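Supplementary Methods S3. Input chains for the assembly prediction are listed below.
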Amino acid sequence: MAQVEYTSVILRFGELGIKSSQTRRRMTNLLIRHIESALRENNVSYEKVHSVYGRIYIETDKAMEAAQVAAKVFGIVSTSPVVETSAEMDAILNVGEQLARAHFKKGLTFAAGARRIGEHTFSSQDVRGSLGERILEGIPELELKVDLSNPEQSIYAEVRDEKAHLFTQTIKGVGGMPTGSQGKVVCTISTGLDSPIAAYKVMKRGCIPVFLHLDNTPYADEHCSEIAVKQANLLAKYIHGFEVKLYIIPHAPDIEEAQKHAPEKMTCLFCKRNMLRIAREIAIMEDADAIVTGEIIGEQASQTIANLRVIEQAVTDFPILRPLAGEDKVDIEHLAQEIGTYEFAKEGASCCTLNPKYPSVRADPEQVASFEEPMDLGILKEELKNARIMILRKGK
Amino acid sequence: MAQVEYTSVILRFGELGIKSSQTRRRMTNLLIRHIESALRENNVSYEKVHSVYGRIYIETDKAMEAAQVAAKVFGIVSTSPVVETSAEMDAILNVGEQLARAHFKKGLTFAAGARRIGEHTFSSQDVRGSLGERILEGIPELELKVDLSNPEQSIYAEVRDEKAHLFTQTIKGVGGMPTGSQGKVVCTISTGLDSPIAAYKVMKRGCIPVFLHLDNTPYADEHCSEIAVKQANLLAKYIHGFEVKLYIIPHAPDIEEAQKHAPEKMTCLFCKRNMLRIAREIAIMEDADAIVTGEIIGEQASQTIANLRVIEQAVTDFPILRPLAGEDKVDIEHLAQEIGTYEFAKEGASCCTLNPKYPSVRADPEQVASFEEPMDLGILKEELKNARIMILRKGK
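Predicted structure tokens for the full assembly:
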């Protein structure tokens, strides 16, 4: 019996399935474009990416690589390299036996699953039963046992009209919604662990990021901006078909101005208020709808909810999205390890030398306003003029 | 050899460990009070809850129940029922053998672990080695094998000064920070899946919730408010030592006012703007620092980031926390199943009959303002006067 070869990839998308048919069509088309672009970038050759009945298929003789690349496209819940054959019982059983022979491990339990759409002379139950039998009888040397409730390995057949697709492997996708199903958001990116994960989470929900890094030199090592560039670059790789920019803005002048007029314990508050103001200017220039930060309630003194209130009042016409507000640090660390930003954060452990030893944990809004009154916030416009703008991804 | 009995519980807290010693002390004291209150409420008798070297211990002869109750107190990362003995090698090995005899399963692999603080005649490595040997030799009938890298079951000894604690089980805790380490937040609670999970996440980070439910009758079944009360009641059980209130506010009059002056496709926008305005009034009355919603980017038409911007502009002096902004629905469903709110959400599938068929997905802020201009927002004050206020938990 010849070695079995994958012929294509099945891609599954989750939440998209519950949208209206018009939204679903628009989003499916976005997804197909992003997948094609991801395959091209990764030099994975393919014949066609197309959708049928709530599934997307990639026709390719590099199915395993394509399945892995597509699993990292936002909107994809899972992928499977598959063997396509005709929707006839004989063909299905032959391919099923070949796949089990190639991928099943000796002595373990297995289950066969099947789904069927269209007119056929057999039911999906028939496919399940016959496929299980054929594998048991056709490959006795593997000493397999059937376990339907908790199998150690599985084989599935999806029969649709004239075609059947069989697979034994499912690769978990990144999930979320297709990039571009939402508009732009300004994502603040520091050298730490949290901000890139916050950006990742809103990107996953379909937003197009405009990255903003505030350069604290001389109160930070020059190395720090490089770490932020690495973080933004890694995240930008998840975006297909849209331009991604990174703004690096010198931040020291406005912090120095704050230090002239306010007590040291409030430095972080004014730093963050100014960060939001700069983010707002960029949001206006870039036509973005929101500002994203990596703040976690209670993680640092400046991140008490009382302080978040004082910080947020600096910008009143854009929502500040804090997707990590309710997360525990340990969960963020796991996600950073998955995504690959964990290493960068370790490098940039301390990129601000101005952290006060006893920071204010419950600043008063009125007091903050009165300290801020004599500050020259025109400095922020100057800082914006000195922006370094990097294009991390080209658009279509 | 006598049956081994647990004598106490070890509780571990994660992020607290990295705080300053002053903060850590304050938070540890909060935690101890909450644990005592949780034990009393669940009728689990105990002798003492106290802290030693970054651990909290419960002295109790109901160790297994106490370990389970304490695992649900915010700030606790894990708990283990333990056997306390003296810090002598003989005593440790005797207890270790008894514990393994009582809890280890036949034929599986195991590992022994040990930590040690204080002055002893042996190292932690000695404890690990001797404990493993003693279990292998003392209980040959269990046919155990040692596997240090990936054991199927484990035993640990923690030796501190004159005492040693041994355990074989670790119960995962809810994590987060102790309730009251942050101030109050107003948590909007609907009948759906998302808002209670958003509330849970900020509560987990130490915030004290003030729940707010908007009663949509006659555009919702009367049953709907009951579901919201159930959701809030379940969440309130996680709070110890602080009063928890639920405000139920009639919402129909302001929606009707919006419908008079704005096109149907914008109904959800005005509904949510008014929700935030009502939440703001309650935040002021209750001295809360933020408003929490269950919004997820792109989950519904009213939840595009463009619309979130329009909604948020209704309140400019309080932060709107959306801890689920970057989550996928499937992850929220899992958490709702864990916490127990999933069942309620199923009951309250449709608690608003005014959802427009073609809602606005990208409302213009200026247009929204001009539609809103003739609306009588004094209605909101009237609605607040008709609030039903329930005390779900009494304070200290």
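The CA atoms of residues 119 and 146 of chain B lie 28 Å apart. The radius of gyration of chain B is 26 Å.
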